[in-house]
Amino acid sequence: GASDAKPFFQSSFDYLVSHYVDGPVVIGAPYCGPPPVENVYVFRWQSQQSEHAGPDFQLEQYDRSTAAKMAGIQECAALPTGLIMYDMRIFALTEPKDADSKPWFYYEFSDKYAAHKSSTEDVTMTRDLALAGVQKWGYNPVLCNWDAWAGHWKPKCVGKPHILSAKDVSSKLVEAVEGDFDPSTKLVDLRWNVKPAKPEMSVK
User: Fold this and answer.
1) pTM (two decimals)
2) Which residue, of 46, 57, 75, 78, has the greatest Cβ tally within 10 A?
């Protein structure tokens, strides 16, 4: 791991205990998705312009360069739950009240057939906690421990992003020129990406 990394359990538990009197929190470790796109599974709210009268905001993932520079335990908009610590009192915040209430964890889909997933259960759970916490308790209880990155085992152990500098890019370009590589050679990503057909109605 990185030289400045902290053990997730101890650093998160210390924070959780120190905040106990002020109210419950949930603290998660950041980690990335699988290659070839190792996106960061921590979210923030983003807008396209300032002081806009319309609802100009959306939930987005931290970009790799920004995430690599983050430190400490900070508020976020939503988290993954692969490595996470809950103060159990926090579940009262979004506890289902009746049969029509959403559960603590649920998926969101982009169409009525639930064919395309738009949000996973960990994101909806922590996002709802963050929004409800601000409304009911006056603070966001969802926190990311940026000092304690988790490895995410996929085809390889995906770790904390590395920051690319101008020097890094320059050296790669020099290697490409001096290496006399064939420019016609291409690397093609062959991923299965066929959308399922919508169910058809049978008329009798």
Assistant:
1) 0.78
2) 78
Give the contacts of 39 (CB within 8 A, at least 6 positions apart).
32, 33, 61, 64
Residue count of the chain: 204
State which amino acid sits at residue 46: Q
At residue 83, the pLDDT reads 97
pLDDT value at residue 203 = 47
| Contact yes or no for 84/26 (Cβ under 8 A) | yes
Positions in the chain short of pLDDT 70: 1-2, 176-177, 187, 189-204
Interatomic CA distance for residues 124 and 110, integer angstroms: 14
Do β-strands 73-75 and 142-145 pair in parallel, antiparallel, or remain unpaired? antiparallel
Separation of alpha carbons 77 and 130, rounded Å: 6
Note the pLDDT of residue 151. Answer: 94
> Structural domain boundaries of the chain?
8-158
What is the spatial distance between Cα 92 and Cα 128, in angstroms, rounded to a whole number?
A: 12
Question: What pLDDT score does 2 carry?
Answer: 66
Question: What pLDDT, on a 0 to 100 scale, did the predictor assign at position 63?
Answer: 96
CA nearest neighbour of 140 among 153, 152, 128, 131: 131
Tokens standing for residue 198 = 């919508």
DSSP state of 99: T
Label each residue of 157-197 as H, E or C: EECCCCCCCHHHHHHHHHHHHHCCCCCCCCCCCCCCCCCCC
